[in-house]
Each structure stands twice: as C-alpha cells, then as structure tokens.
Amino acid sequence: MPFWPFKRKSVPQVEESPQxxxxxxxxxxxxxxxxxxxxxxxADYKAAMQLFGDSQSEQAEWVxxxxxxxxQKKSDGSFNPVAHILDSDGNKIPFNEQxx
Length: 100
Prior knowledge:
Elements: H1 28-35, H2 43-51, E1 61-64, E2 70-73, E3 84-86, E4 92-94
Antiparallel strand pairs: 1-2, 3-4
C-alpha cells in the first residue's frame, strides 16, 4: 500500500453543557450563595483584581510631599514616580507637565 500523507480528521467530542443554576427571590440557598465571599480570598482572584485595577482590593497610601505633589506609596514601601495633583473634587489625578 502506498504512503498517504494526509490524515483523517478526528471527530471532535461534544461536551454536554452544565445545568443552569436557578435562583429565586427569598430562597435561603440564594441568600447563602450571594453572601459567600470566599472567592475573594483566593490568590488568583486577588491577582486578577490587581491586574485589572480594582481600587477596592488594595487601598492606596498617598503621601503629600513638600514639592506640593501627591505620590502613591506601594505596599513594599517604594513610591510610584508619577506625581499627582488634586482636582476640584479632591480626586488625585496624574500631573502632566505638558498641560501646564
């Protein structure tokens, strides 16, 4: 029999979809499921929140320097080199020298 360079494609296996969870108002299991915050303690969850910039996962420590700018202090004790100023609402926004 001669050599055949083409392989027969395998048929992909179809996985069954998971059953949907049904929640109803006033159900005791629903209240327990919504109150469960154990996933927020997982390292993967914390890493994802830090990656996507969740401001609630880690409160920033701000230091007002003598030069009049605010600098963000990181958890390891180092500082973010970007200077910030306060806007009219009291929010800290990055200072851009080109704007001044």
